[in-house]
Every structure is written in structure tokens, then in C-alpha cells.
Specification:
It is a single chain. With about 280 residues, the chain is mainly α. The protein contains 12 helices and no strands. It is flat, with a radius of gyration of 28 Å.
């Protein structure tokens, strides 16, 4: 607990909203020079940025995007957490090696340190997978609602905004962010491609490609939405049936490892005891 509190104290920074307000108030009052750049990148965050390879940093940023970019875990905090966690675990493993050095202990220490380095990555991957499953489940219903809104007379972006602002979940958040990207001047195709990169769900990618092609060739968006929603519902039903078919196979292993040995003992146990008594007499 003490190590966790130290790590949080070192990685916790000022409120992000307060920093943005201060930056907006101080905009244009002074010019940022080399000293400001050094000050922004100094300290523990700068050390973590220098020690982390650039490829790993880009990968972490992509994982954060797919995990929904939690407000409490910006990229800088993740980098510092990786550095501190690895350093603490490496120190503990060094103490273990000092107590008794051997090849097995050294291999165990290296494996634990490597695991500590990749723990934040694994947590982000897990959260990204959960978010992807949530988007997959919510996509057919969202497309149905967008189809109803478009058929009622709304445009595609207006329908997307109406559905996103009246819904909750990961898909609604991603749609709102896409609309915000379009509102600040980003082209629609780039905003849709960015949405596909943030949410690597095959069904969502297929839907976005269909929307882009519909805009290019002048196809009715309502027809595209209706077709995509129908296909998504069929695929969702097929995935549910597939999971149901896998249940008997998954039940076999717990049955063999837990219930079957007990049954063998109950059925064969008395006979084995009688045989032992007969030979003993």
C-alpha cells in the first residue's frame, strides 16, 4: 500500500481542466521558448518519456484510444507507472537474488520484472477488448435507431447526433467524438477512419466503409443503414448460437476433473475396501 501511495503521489498532477483553463488565459501573453520545452519535459514524466521507446509510446497511445482514453490515466501517467512499477519490482527481485543466487531464481526474477513492465499494457488491452465487445453488442440497436431517425427526415450526421446524445455506452461516446471531430473541421472520411482505428470492431469498420461508399456514389443512406442493421442482427444471433454450442464442450473438462473422480471413488471405493479386507484375512 505504501508503494502504491508513493507511485500515485509521484504520478498525480494538477487537474487537467484547470491546466486547460490556465493555458487559455495565458495564451498570447508570453512566447514559449527552449526553456519552457525543457521545463515541460523535465521531472519524472520526462525521464519516463526518454526511457520508453518511441514505438512503445505510440503503441500505448493506440491502446489508450481503444480503451476509451480514461480521464484518470493519460499517456504520461501510464509511462510513469510503467517506469515506477518496473523499478520497484526490480529492486525487490534484487533483494531476492541477494538472499540466494541461482539460475532458477535469476530466471524467475527476469520473468517477474518483464511482467511488471507489461502489466499496464495488459490492463489496457483487457479494457480495450471489453469496450470492443460493448460496441459490438450496441451496434445493431444503434443502427436501428439511426435508420428510424433518417427515415423520419433527419440527415445522417443529425441522426448520429440524436442517437449518440440519447444513448449511453462506449459506442455513444465514440460517435460523439466523431461528431466533434467533424465540427472542428476534420473531413468526414478522416473522422470515420479515425473512428475505425479507435474501435477495431469488424462490424463497425464494415458499416463505416459502407457509409463512405454511399456518400461517394450517392446511394441512399437510409437503405444502407437498414441493410447494415439487418446484417448486424443476424450476426449477433449467430454469435449467440455459436457461444451456446461451445458450452457443452467447455463443461466437459470441469466434469472430468471434479465430478468424475468423486463418482469413481463412491462407486468403486467400497469394492476396493472389501477386496483389501479379503486378502488381508
Amino acid at each position: 500500500m505504501a508503494l502504491a501511495l508513493v507511485a500515485y503521489a509521484l504520478t498525480a498532477g494538477p487537474d487537467a481542466a484547470r491546466e486547460r483553463v490556465q493555458a487559455n488565459l495565458q495564451r498570447g501573453m508570453r512566447r514559449s521558448g527552449p526553456q519552457d520545452d525543457v521545463q515541460r519535459q523535465s521531472g519524472l514524466i520526462g525521464l519516463a518519456q526518454r526511457l520508453t521507446p518511441a514505438g512503445n509510446t505510440r503503441r500505448l497511445d493506440l491502446l489508450l484510444a481503444r480503451a476509451g482514453r480514461p480521464a484518470a490515466w493519460p499517456l504520461e501517467r501510464v509511462l510513469v507507472t510503467k517506469l515506477l512499477l518496473t523499478a520497484v519490482v526490480a529492486g525487490l527481485m534484487a533483494l531476492v537474488l541477494l538472499g540466494g543466487f541461482s539460475g532458477r531464481i535469476l530466471l524467475f526474477a527476469v520473468a517477474v520484472v518483464a511482467l511488471a513492465w507489461f502489466v499496464p499494457d495488459l490492463l489496457l488491452i483487457s479494457r480495450g477488448q471489453k469496450r470492443r465487445e460493448e460496441i459490438q453488442k450496441a451496434l445493431p440497436d444503434t443502427l436501428d435507431q439511426m435508420t428510424i431517425a433518417v427515415e423520419a427526415g433527419l440527415g445522417f450526421e443529425a441522426a448520429m447526433s440524436h442517437v449518440a446524445r440519447n444513448s449511453r455506452g462506449a459506442l455513444a461516446e465514440e460517435l460523439i467524438r466523431t461528431l466533434q471531430d467533424i465540427q472542428v473541421g476534420q473531413p468526414r472520411r478522416e473522422a470515420y477512419r479515425a473512428l475505425a482505428d479507435r474501435s477495431p470492431e469488424p462490424d463497425l469498420r464494415r458499416f463505416l466503409r459502407a457509409v463512405i461508399q454511399a456518400e461517394q456514389h450517392g446511394v441512399s443512406v437510409a437503405r444502407v443503414l437498414s441493410t447494415q442493421a439487418r446484417e448486424m442482427r443476424v450476426k449477433r444471433r449467430q454469435r449467440a448460437e455459436e457461444k451456446a454450442m461451445k458450452i457443452p464442450v467447455k463443461v466437459v473438462f470441469p466434469l472430468i476433473l471434479t465430478i468424475l473422480p468423486v463418482l469413481i471413488i463412491v462407486v468403486i471405493g467400497p469394492g476396493v475396501i472389501n477386496i483389501i479386507d479379503a486378502f488381508a484375512n
